[in-house]
Write a structure and sequence with these properties.
- It is a single chain.
- The chain has six helices and three strands; from the N terminus they run E-E-E-H-H-H-H-H-H.
- With 181 residues, it is α+β, with helices and mostly antiparallel strands.
- Among the domains are: 35 residues, no CATH class; 75 residues, no CATH class.
- A hairpin with a 3-residue loop joins strand 1 and strand 2.
- It starts with 10 loop residues before the first strand and ends in a 46-residue tail after the last helix.
């Protein structure tokens, strides 16, 4: 069991498809290499220590869904999606806690509206995507902020003014710039 190797110096070999961990010359364990989103887990259930397999009395699926229920149905669905993502459900508990406590603590209605919007868009709910979407929403209308028009990419034509009418402008004529003068 890899957790029994805690505190030992191990060697790791990373390839494009595998992560292999060696204890001396022996292979301790091998996992498929994850690509894409940073921070993904690749834990094998049989590698989890017995004391961590039973999380009864600690955070649980029911505990997070009960908390999400106070926000609304969209938040419940998002929390279910986050909980269903990893093979080991406990790996999603911190994400759920951050979503409910970090984003929803003072913004219950906005979090519910944000969750509904990400569900409507068939998005991939993570703390970061919810936080960014929530920041882009107007708190009054609960809708995404309207896009601002792009700035013009052409210069404005200078206003046509007759320099003869202005006394503070002195313009030399073409004859001043002739050669041999």
């Amino acid at each position: 069991m890899p957790y029994k190797l805690t505190g030992r110096i191990l060697k790791v070999r990373l390839t494009g498809v595998k992560v292999t961990i060696f204890d001396g010359d022996a292979v301790a364990c091998e996992h498929p290499r994850k690509h894409g989103r940073k921070g993904q887990y690749s834990t094998m259930v049989e590698h989890v220590p017995k004391q961590h397999q039973d999380v009864h009395g600690l955070w649980s699926r029911k505990w997070f869904l009960d908390r999400a229920r106070s926000f609304g149905p969209a938040t419940i669905k998002v929390i279910e999606m986050v909980l269903d993502r990893p093979k080991i459900q406990a790996q999603a508990f911190l994400d759920c806690q951050n979503i409910l406590e970090g984003l929803g603590k003072n913004n219950r209605q906005r979090l519910e509206a944000t969750c509904q919007q990400i569900l409507n868009q068939h998005g991939y709910p993570t703390y970061t995507t919810l936080k960014r979407l929530m920041a882009s929403m107007n708190s009054d209308s609960q809708q995404a902020a309207p896009p601002l028009p792009a700035a013009p990419n052409t210069k404005k034509a200078p206003a046509a003014t007759d320099t003869a009418e202005r006394s503070d402008v002195y313009v030399r004529g073409a004859d001043y710039y002739q050669e041999g003068r």
